[in-house]
Amino acid sequence: MSDSVEESIDLKKVYKGSRPIIATVILLGGTIGLLFAIGLSVSFGAADIDFGTVWSAVFQFNPNLTTHQIIQDIRLPRVLGAGLVGACFAVAGSIMQGMTRNPLADSGLLGLNAGAAFMLAICFAFFPGLPYMYIILFSFFGAALGAGIVYGVGSLAKGGLTPMRLVLAGAAVSALLGALSEGVAIYFRIGQDLAFWNAGGVSGTKWEHLKVMSPWIIAAIIGAIMLSKSITLLSLGDEVAIGLGQRTGRIKFFGSVVVLVLAGAAVSVVGAVGFVGLIVPHLTRFLVGSDYRWIVPCSAILGSLLVILADFAARMINPPYETPIGALIALIGVPFFLYLARKGGKEL
Amino acid sequence: MTEENYISAYQQKKHRKNIFLILTICLLIIIMFMISMGTGFIRLTPIELVRTLFGMGTDKQNIILFDFRLPRIVISILVGMALAVSGSILQGVSRNALADPGILGINSGAGLAVMLFISFFPTTTAAPVFFLPILAFVGAGATAILIYVLAYKRGEGISPTRLLLTGVAVAAGISAAMIVLTLRLSPENYQFVAIWMAGSIWGSNWSFVLALLPWILILLPIAYSKARVLNTFNLGEIPATGLGLAIEKERLILLAIAVGLAGASVSVSGGIGFIGLIAPHLARQLVGAKHQYLLPTAALIGSLLLITADTIGRWILQPSEIPAGIVVAVIGAPYFLYLLARSKT
After folding, report:
1. Cα angle at A253 between A172 and A221, to 5 degrees?
2. What is the per-residue pLDDT for B126?
3. What's the rounded Cα separation, in Å, for the pair A27 and A170?
4. Interface touch A175/B333, C-beta < 8 Å
5. Do A157 and B161 touch (CB under 8 A)?
6. Helix (H, G, I), strand (E, B) or coil at B157
7. How many CB atoms lie within 10 A of CB B127?
8. Once rounded to an integer, what is the mean pLDDT over residues B122-133?
9. Which domains are seen in chain B, by residue range?
10. What residues contact residue B332 under an 8 Å CB cut-off, 6+ apart?
11. Class of domain A2-344
12. B202 has pLDDT over 60
């Protein structure tokens, strides 16, 4: 198969256009940036704690000190949660954009987040106190539900799945599922619990959540990296991919599973935060070119960084109140979306 | 008989059929009105209802009916009309079957303006109530202008799809801003705003009816007088210009009417989407695309839908109340999806 890959002109263009050096810089620099952002985010907050204390709280934990407890029980899981969630949304977005060749694909815009959030409302209402291990499964199922409806409606239409139609279907499905969640919330009086969480907040993240979600997320991201070569081929179009010996159906299936797991896991922690999966892959593609073997890992790093910084900003803007990250990211995401929608112009 | 006579006979027959349809919808509204008056946490039997209406009820029945239920029902009738006509105008002007003040983000702009006001002046005493529709109109108008400017592209003008996409995005941005605002509110105010945003007919109070009524009384007749203009818009822009229509001016007037109606209704009822989408479509299927019939029919259907949704919301999960906006979204979103799946572009 590798011979035929070499022969493809399109693919050569992709490889030629990709910038492995910049990608390596992003991976290394991003990791350092991540560590720095985590340190920053852990030490600032309602009570400022200096770096030395943070260091000793992590590596020489002393349960009798309040500062150590704050760091270990509240801030650290929160920051790590934010990082994981950012990586999830960004990788899910990049896979969706590559697989569907839709520049406007994002788990928030296409109804996955609303679906997961709806299933979580159901969980809160009917099975209060359900362990997180099971909640996350509901969340996967919800993401699949949302995506299923959106793609179902999109593909029923005569002109097929155009990006614009998918986004509109996504908006309608989100409105529908959002209305249903709200109805459930009002009836069971779980509105306040749900409202903040829906708006997006990692403040409630606990070690228990991280333990349950990390294996899923790590497996899904590894899966995404394994698929990334095939995704690059798919992003050139189905015909090209088939011509190069790819089993497109199978790749699309596994790709969808990866996306659902990532979006579901992220929503189960942070709520329906949109636009991370839209912004980050575009930015990454702009920086490293269109080879998904670089896009996927770089998106993961940059996504983490974005959400950690957004969470940090959310805490600092109006202390002691927290601004929901979902809203903050939407304030960046909306202009970006408008820019893409304008640029897309004719094909949309 | 000459050909002309045939045509006029056909038109008369159609006219009679349409009038009959409109009367039928009126009758349905009256029936729903009666059902809605009796439905709620405390049920009123039809006999009790009639007795109370003629001033022979107990004090408790009087309060329930005249102070709580009637203003609410009247508001849902008015809001339903306003949203439906607003939607019809938007669909007519943009020639886009999926246009609706909710989807285009106009409702959210009005909501943001109202919410800014509530968060700075928390108590809704009598004076601000009359002020709210004006405020909402300003918010809705500003948003409409923003969307129009963002969707405009030199050389191509406004494409219907880009208009919708821009509307969806702007609505998302505004609701993000609203979430940021809500969290700064006190818990009591928060609960109030949350329910209002979900589209509850919260103006269970005659002063809201009075605040809304002038807008409806002025704007609906103007809209009706523009029915012919809207018909010409249906032909497309070039023929419309050929027929001597000052396109830009007429479009601006019509958009202002649509925005005013949407803003005024949002200020009393919160974000109710999809009525402006569904009502004109149903009306078009019943009476055709002529706006002389379409506008009144859509208005009545809008009323009927909203009263029904409000009644269902009050009845379905007793003792909790589900805001009418949620009920409408549960019905409206699938309808939107259906239209989307059928659409060709």
Report:
1. 90
2. 46
3. 32
4. yes
5. no
6. strand
7. 9
8. 62
9. 75-342 (1.10.3470.10)
10. A175, B273, B274, B275, B277, B278
11. mainly alpha
12. no
CA distances from A93 to A201, A283, B333 (A): 20, 12, 25
Q: Which alpha helices (H) appear in A105-247, and where do they start and end?
A: 112-126, 132-156, 163-188, 191-199, 207-234, 238-243
Cβ atoms A336, A68 nearer than 8 A: no
Identify which has the larger pLDDT, B315 or B193. B315
Angle at which helix B291-315 crosses helix B227-234, to 10 degrees, equals 100
Q: Is the peptide bond prior to B319 cis by the omega test (within 30 degrees of 0)?
A: yes
CB A86 within 8 A of CB A308: yes
φ and ψ at B187, to 5 degrees? -55, -40
Residues of B in contact with A191 (CB under 8 A): 191, 194
Low-confidence residues of chain A: pLDDT under 50:
1-6, 345-348
pLDDT of A320: 65
Nearest to A186 among B190, B322, B329 (CB): B322
- Within 13 Å, how many C-alpha atoms sit on residue A123's CB side? 23
Q: Specify the residue for token string 């009393």.
A: B268
Amino acid B306: pLDDT: 92
pLDDT at position B157 is: 66
User: What was the ipTM of the complex prediction?
Assistant: 0.75
Measured in angstroms, the CA of A230 and the nearest CA of chain B are apart by 30
Asked whether A311 and A76 are in contact (CB, 8 A), the reply is no
CA dist., res. B148 & res. B311, Å (int): 36
Per-residue pLDDT tens digits for B60-111: 777 777 777 888 888 889 999 999 999 999 888 877 778 888 888 888 888 8
Share of chain B above pLDDT 90, in %: 15
For residues B309 and B148, what is the distance between their CA atoms, to the nearest angstrom?
Answer: 31
**Interacting residues of A281 by C-beta distance below 8 A, sequence separation 6+:** A90, A93, A94, A97, A295, A299
> For testing the chain B interface, which of A118, A186, A323, A337 should be mutated: the one with the most B CBs within 10 Å?
A186
Both tokens of A32, joined, read 């350092």
DSSP per position, A81-141: HHHHHHHHHHHHHHHHHHHHT-TT--TTTTTHHHHHHHHHHHHHHHSTT--HHHHHHHHHH
Both structure tokens of A59: 């590596």
Mean pLDDT (chain B) is: 81
Tell whether the model's pLDDT for residue B140 goes beyond 80.
yes
Residues in chain A: 348
Determine the residue of chain B that is closest to A104 in CA distance: B165
Would the CB atoms of B322 and A183 count as touching at under 8 Å? yes
- Looking at residue B317, the DSSP 8-state letter turns out to be T
pLDDT band per the 50, 70, 90 thresholds, residue B122: low
The answer to whether the Cβ–Cβ distance between B166 and A341 falls below 8 Å is yes
* The dihedral formed by the CA atoms of B267, B272, B273 and B278, expressed in degrees to the nearest 10: -110
| Spatial contact of B179 and A273, defined as CB atoms under 8 Å apart | no
Partners of residue B310 in chain A, C-beta under 8 Å: none
Chain B partners within 8 Å of A153 (Cβ): 337, 340-341
* Cross-chain residue pair B169–A337, CB shorter than 8 Å: yes
Mutation test of the interface with chain B: which of A102, A153, A176, choosing the one with the most B Cβ atoms within 10 A? Answer: A176
Q: In this model, does residue B56 exceed pLDDT 70? A: yes
> What are the domain boundaries of chain A?
2-344
Question: Is residue B125 helix, strand or coil?
Answer: coil
